[in-house]
Amino acid sequence: MYPGLTLVILVFLYFAYNHRRWLWLQWTRCLAHCGMTSAQLRLATYYHADDEFKNSDEALRWFLKAAQKGNIEAQCTMAEMYGQGQGVVRNMAESIKWYQKAAEQGNAEAQLFVGRCYAEGQILPPDLAQAVKWYEKAASQGNQRAYFLLAELYANSQGAERDYPTAAKWYRLAAEGGDFRAELALADMYAHGRGVAQNPKEAIRLYQQAVIQGSTLAQFRLAKLLADGSTPATPEERAKAQYELAQLYLQGQTVPADSLEATRWLIKAGEAGHLNSQCQLAKMYLEGRHTIQNYPEAIKWLTRAAEQNDGEAQFNLAKAFAEGRGVPSDLVEAYTWCNLAAVTGKQDVIEFRDKLGRSMSQPQIREAQDRSAARMAGRPS
User: What does the buried/exposed string (b/e) look like for 191-225 if buried means 16 or more CB atoms within 10 Å of the residue's CB?
Assistant: First the structure.
């Protein structure tokens, strides 16, 4: 092989490697000028998105050529560009024109967009029949969002167009695809017997599925359904739901904050023996948070929690008896509860018990220890 030819080949390869993107662009331009639609789309995308060769005018030119030849991707991109004002002056009429062309060719996302425009009366005049038509076309392709939008359309329309049974059908399809909004809406329908036979168990199942996906509104409605006694549930399930409902009212995120409602549900749960509710009520009444400070009420709930062997409640009850807060001062009763709380092994509890002991006589300490032993054994003291 001639040395000169070798050098030429090496120089050519070096140039081609270092300018491969530019060469690729020129080759694509040749194909695009020859009328190849896929090349026109590739060239348009290159000019639209590539930082090195970005050129809005060229991008629009080649997207338009591809779109005019019926390329769906190019039509959708043209619609987006006009809709968002990307490289062109924003023009919603042009945007919807290209979405309609893509929709007519079967693009589900374009069909959804056109359907929504008819449903909301934006860009296009409101037309429920047209909205249903385009949503159903997208739904026939298995589009999950179309299922939900159709359900919303039938559930929320006014007058004769409202159709709960049909809405339930589409919500069910969307829910089966994991749409938590559909799970929540369908659960509401089963809970209230709207469009379907009332079925609290199915409502609970759907609410639970939506909760798993992070829906706090589903958590609220599930808790409300279980808490109010209208749905079959075990006492433990109902009390837990009442406690969760109270937390949602205290947090004030999913529903407006309402300390009175929160306290009402905590009392119901506490009366049913829910330990966390009893502890929270005791703290609220002790500190005057979310309710008026009320030491006797605090002692009532501390006692109930302490009787369920909650160490913190036992310790707080011991301090209340030692200080005479909400109850007459009683060192024997204070030592009794502190002795029970000391089972947790917490150093501050043990130190407080020992401090009490230094202020008591030996007969008082023995009496307190006897009471502790009796309560541990479950006997009256």
Answer: beebbbeeebebbbebbebbbeeebebbbbbbbbb
Q: What pLDDT, on a 0 to 100 scale, did the predictor assign at position 29?
A: 63
**Residue whose C-alpha is closest to residue 278's, from 255, 296, 302, 261:** 302
Window from 48-62, 115-129, 145-159 with minimum mean pLDDT:
48-62
Which residue bears the tokens 């310790």? 315
Geometric angle at alpha carbon 237, from 278 and 315, rounded to 5°: 20
List of residues 6+ apart from 307 with CB closer than 8 A: none
The CATH homologous superfamily to which domain 30-126 belongs is Tetratricopeptide repeat domain (1.25.40.10)
What's residue 8's pLDDT? 53
Domain 234-308, CATH number (from 1.25.40.10, 1.10.1520.10, 1.10.3720.10, 1.20.1250.20): 1.25.40.10
**Residues in CB range of 7: below 8 A, 6 or more apart:** none
56 band by pLDDT with thresholds 50, 70 and 90: confident
Q: Do domains 30-126 and 234-308 have the same CATH topology?
A: yes
The token pair that represents 117 in the structure block: 């425009």
| Per-domain residue ranges of the chain | 30-126, 234-308, 312-381
* Calpha distance 137→351 (Å, rounded): 74
Report the 10 Å Cβ neighbour count for 355: 11
- Phi (first) and psi of residue 328, to 5 degrees: -65, 145
- Say how many C-beta atoms besides its own lie within 10 A of residue 53's C-beta: 15
